[in-house]
Amino acid sequence: MTDLATLELDLINAIGGAESVAALEEVRVAALGKSGSVSGLLKGMGAMSPDERREQGPMINGLRDRVAAAIAARKAELEAAELDARLQAERVDLTLPARPRRKGGVHPTMQVMDEMIALFAEMGFAVAEGPDIEDDFHNFTALNFPPKHPAREMHDTFFLKPDPETGERKVLRTHTSPVQVRTMMSQKPPIRIIAPGRTFRKDSDATHTPMFHQIEGLVIDRDIHMGHLKTTLQTFIARFFELDEVQARFRPHHFPFTEPSAEMDIRCDRSGGKLVFNTGDDWLEILGCGMVHPNVLKNCGIDPDEYQGFAFGMGVDRLAMLKYGVPDLRPMFDADTRWLAHYGFSAFAAPNPASGLS
Amino acid sequence: MKFALSWLKDHLETEADVHRIAEAMTMAGLEVEEVLDPAAKLAPFTVAKILSAERHPNADRLQVCQVETVDGLKEIVCGAPNARAGLTTIYAPIGAYVPGLGVTLVEKPVRGVVSNGMLCSASELELSDESDGIQELPPEIPVGTPVAGLFGAEPVIDFEVTPNRPDWLGVAGIARDLAAASVGKLKHFDIAVVRGAFPSPITVRLDAPEMCPVFAGRVIRGVKNGPSPAWLQKRLTAIGLRSINRLVDVTNLIAYDRARPLHVYDVAKLVGTEIVVRAGQVSAETAHIEGGEPEHLIALDGKTYAAAATDCVIADAGGERPIGLGGVMGGESTGCDETTTDVFIESAWFDPLVIAQTGRALGIHSDAQYRFARGVDPVSVTPGLELATRLILDLCGGEPSEIVFVGEPPASPAPFAFDPAYVKRLSGMDLDDDRIGTILGQLGFLVTAGPADQAEPWTVTPPSWRRDVEGRADLVEEVARIEGFDSLPDTPLPEVARPAGGVLSPRQARVRTARRALAALGYAEAVTWSFTKQSTAVLFGGGDDRLVLENPIAADLDCMRPSALPNLIQAAARNAARGFADAALFEIGPIYLADGPKDQRTVIAGLVAPHAARHWAGSGEDALFAMKGDLTTLLEEIGAPVASLQLAQGQNRDWWHPGRSARLQLGTKNVMVEFGELHPRVLKALDADGPMLGFEIVLDNVPEPRGKGGKARGSADLSAFMPLTRDFAFVVEDAKPVGDLVRAATGADKALIAEVRVFDVYRGKGVDEGFKSVALEVVIQPRDATLTEAEIEALTAKVVAAVEKQGGKLRA
To answer: Which fold has domain A108-340?
Structure first.
């Protein structure tokens, strides 16, 4: 074996035997460093005769190249092993729990309110508002409840203490209908509005709370008749319950502020302890409605010979319960965090026509 | 109100069954609450005959009977002492539900002998309250006859009458509507005039015609009062009334039959010969005292009532002695009983508002009060009296006097012009004029051709019992409900242009955004009462007497809330009491500053009860600053001018922790938000364990974003140059708000300083007592070119100068 071959074998063994990047660097310096063994051979080529150089040169250069390549390969190997070892050491236990975040949510009544507003917005209704504390005129008189009339008693009205100076007794609005009055008194027909909000009646049992939510609707124009009322409400209720259609009936009723007046029922079956629409022999009352009474139009400065229209009102909390299977009304207003987590809606469930109502 | 089917059939010829009638009533506007059909529960029971009865082998008191039944011969065990061979009785098969026992029969041995059914008593079938043994029936009734038909147990309809239709408080009125709705044919019967044999010895004086404008009466002498005959008792008890005696039962019968209340007085108990109808007054005994005591009266219900000047009183003894509350209830002193021989019948008309008021004020309700308060047909005064006379003569005998009739009935509803085309215009229903006229006619309206100079072709006069009808819309309702709302056309609303920017006002849109933003930030939305307790309202700056309810639902809900926080605090406390102390709640709703229409505000209120569970990685962010971060995010989401908001500390109102709360304001006049920790004193008063943190944004105070330039945004200012940062540490007095230093540093060069971050606040070794070191990282964003060292030097000098102006000293 030539000296060169021996040197190469030794170097290759040393490279293979280097167990760390630092040890490998020592081998590299000993071979290829300034005074390394291979570097010495390269330097020695300067003193050779041209013939010697022609013979030895390629062999020495080849040795250098192979050693350098072997070092690079070994280095890559060692670095990969070191990275593996480091990553192994960095292991964490991912079965540990993350820091918990509170789960927020939207109240079902408010979700349903948003749904209703979205549906009516599509039908061209604007949103009107009015105060919760009303005067007798807006809550009753303008709506054709004559003073002292027994119909007023049906409302279980909350009264504020009489004003010490005027003696006037304000009321908590018993329905959202005063917003009709405020709207008609402040804007000219055509009118197409809904008015959602809080309403109050002195009533408290399993199905009544002293505060609840209504959504009122009002459409006034020259030629609006009861057929419009029927189709509008049937369309709305079907869309609200996300059904293709609803089997509804309109049943005559009495409200002082509408004439004719009706209540709308949906066909349903409750026999299985579950509410199923459009089947069975039962009827579920959904809302009250009617053609705005000519006296109401007059009281609001609208000529009943020129304009007419319909109004409706429905309980938002109750419709939320029906749609989303909430069994009891009272917990709606109790703010039990467990109840809110169960019946609440995601922040991102905002109703829209593309993905649906909730 | 209730009626039995047979009663209706007195007025209506119909083959319709009770369910069809209930359906027709519903669709005509009478809200049927319940159809009670005793026949349905009697359906399984039939007549059977006992062929033999032998003692049970294992029980002395039981007998084993061979019974001929509809199902053939059955062996039935019976414990009734009267079970005997030859008895015709009632048989219940296996599987029948026995209503009086509340059990369904199953085939099982009784002391070793299988009983194949049951023999029943009347009480087991709920046909009577008590029974002595099994029912004994006449032997001629064949085996297999349904029991339902034997006992006259007939269906009863229970329904609600809306306040506009007092005529529906009589069965005859319902029959009229049902006839119009084609359920049957109305039976008319004339009420015969009964000629009086002598002048009425009792006269009537009306001293309060505004309360009682008309009063008719007559005496019938020589009557024989006593228990009513079975048919009358049955008729009354079937609808839940108590049979009292013939005279009283006649008045109740006519009240329910004709919606015509009457009253009967025992003439022997009257003092004097004159009945006076007047307003309530002070009692004679106390009339001499200033103010006096109101007169008192013991009514037929045995209770004593004080009559005020707003109540209508019936009096005798020259008007001195109150003997009844007119239109409401008679007095005990002159009531008719078994001993009555001479009776005075009253048929009057009382003003609905007076009667409603008396009912409310005295808390007294009767069938008469209910009817008069809603409005009785004034024309029924005389016919009602004649009908009562006829019935009393039939039941009690006697001799009637002439009628005494005083006053004038109120005017009947006035005729008005009507164009039948209005039916289509308002209801959309296309009916021909004949049909419209027929419906109105069947309901008792008089339809005539209008005068030549009238634009509308018809003149319509409502019947005297329809005082609710006052105009053309009412007529459309009559026609539409009788034709049936099922015939309404389907007409979509005409398309209208939608508002280009959506239908919500900016404030309404903000409420929506805030709701979704807070939900995303981990807050659960609550909806709580608009009320609170007055003393609680006072704690939160409210509680004005003008916001206190006169009739609260509960003593602790008697005042309109000045803030949504107390309800949220109490909600969190309730959750804690249930074992769930950690809570983040919010509510978007009203608060009430005063009682005017413009005094209501919408607030976005949040409440955090920070009780995070322990975590293996240690405690997380400080709860107060976490909430401040949520609040800032929320304000940005709703487009509040966050950059211009000033934070002021130490000025919050009483319910906040004085050192751990602040307000965000635009100048001192517009405080938009208060936030921080709630005052422990307030939490204690609300029985809530602290700490609790909260915020309340008065949404009405958040200015709407300006700029009418549409929705397009200005061009983005994205610098091409790397930002660089420089750190500073300043020593300032401990009391100095860090925010002041940040604002000063930020303002040192508005063009180049993009942000100032606080990365350390240090007190202790190396910093003098009463001072703190605040470390700031200033982010410098070069705009047009990379900054030179000299420029950076100049900028840092400006930062140092600005902060030193605030009392900060650059730390060496």
So the answer is: BirA Bifunctional Protein; domain 2 (3.30.930)
**Within-domain flag for B250:** yes
- B663 to chain A, any CB pair closer than 8 A? The answer is no
Do B572 and B657 share a domain, yes or no? yes
B456 & B391 share domain: no
Contact yes or no for B526 and A109 at CB 8 A:
no
Interface list for B 603-632 with A (CB within 8 A): 612-613, 615-617, 620
Please name the residue of chain B whose CA is at the shortest distance from the CA of residue A341. Answer: B524
- Ligand-binding annotation for A259, yes or no, is yes
**Interface mutation vs chain B, best among A92, A93, A107, A166, most B CBs within 10 Å:** A107
What stretches of chain A show up as alpha helix (H) in DSSP?
A: 3-17, 21-32, 37-44, 50-89, 108-122, 136-139, 150-153, 178-186, 226-240, 294-299, 316-324, 337-343
Q: What does B17-51 look like in DSSP terms, one character per residue? A: -HHHHHHHHHHHT-EEEEEE-HHHHHTT-EEEEEE
Distance from the Cα of B623 to chain A's closest Cα (Å) equals 12
Interface check B374 vs A, CB under 8 A: yes
Q: What is the pLDDT of residues B74-109, one digit of tens each?
A: 999 998 889 899 999 999 999 999 888 888 888 888
Q: Is B468 one of the annotated binding-site residues?
A: yes
Residue B519 and residue B647 share a domain: yes
For residues B733 and B587, membership in a common domain is answered with: no
- Phi and psi, residue B153, nearest 5°: -75, 105
Whether residues B18 and B125 fall in one domain:
no
Q: The domain containing residue B168 runs over which residues?
A: 2-37+155-186
Which of B493, B560, B561 to mutate to probe the A interface, most A CBs <10 Å? B493
ipTM of the complex: 0.89
Give A334 to chain B, closest Cα distance, Å: 7
Report how far Cα A177 is from the mean position of its chain's Cα atoms. Answer: 30
CB contact under 8 A, B27 and A350: no
The greatest distance separating any two alpha carbons of chain A, rounded to the nearest whole angstrom, comes to 134
Element holding B102 (H helix, E strand): none
Instruction: Provide the number of structural domains found in chain B.
Output: 6
Is B207 marked as a binding-site residue? Answer: no
How does residue B437 score in pLDDT terms, banded at 50, 70 and 90?
A: very high
Q: Are strands B304-307 and B295-298 parallel, antiparallel or unpaired?
A: antiparallel
Please, what's the largest Cα pairwise distance for chain B? 129
Angle at CA B414, nearest 5°, toward B411 and B416? 180
What is the SS3 assignment for B105? coil
Is residue B279 included in any domain, yes or no?
Answer: yes
Looking at the complex, does the CB of residue B599 fall below 8 Å from at least one CB of chain A? yes
Predicted pLDDT of residue A258: 96
What's the CATH code of the domain at B9?
Answer: 3.30.56.10
**Measured between beta carbons, which residues in chain B are less than 8 angstroms from residue A190?**
496
Rounded to whole angstroms, how far apart are CA atoms A139 and A160?
Answer: 14
Using a CB-CB cut-off of 8 Å, the residues of chain A touching B477 are 252, 259-261
Q: What is the pLDDT of residues A158-182, one digit of tens each?
A: 999 998 888 889 999 999 999 999 9
Token pair recorded at residue B218: 């007559």
pLDDT of B150 strictly over 80: no
Disruptive mutation site among B174, B472, B549 for chain A (greatest number of A CBs within 10 Å): B549
Name the burial class of residue A150, with classes exposed (0-12), middle (13-18) and buried (19+) by CB atoms within 10 angstroms of its CB.
buried
Q: Is B165's Cβ below 8 Å from some Cβ in A?
A: yes
Cα–Cα distance list, A144 to A46, A355, B157 (Å): 121, 42, 31
- Token pair 């009420």: residue: B191
- CATH code assigned at B739: 3.30.70.380
Strand partners, B32: B159
Chain B residues lying within 8 Å of A350, measured CB to CB? 512, 516
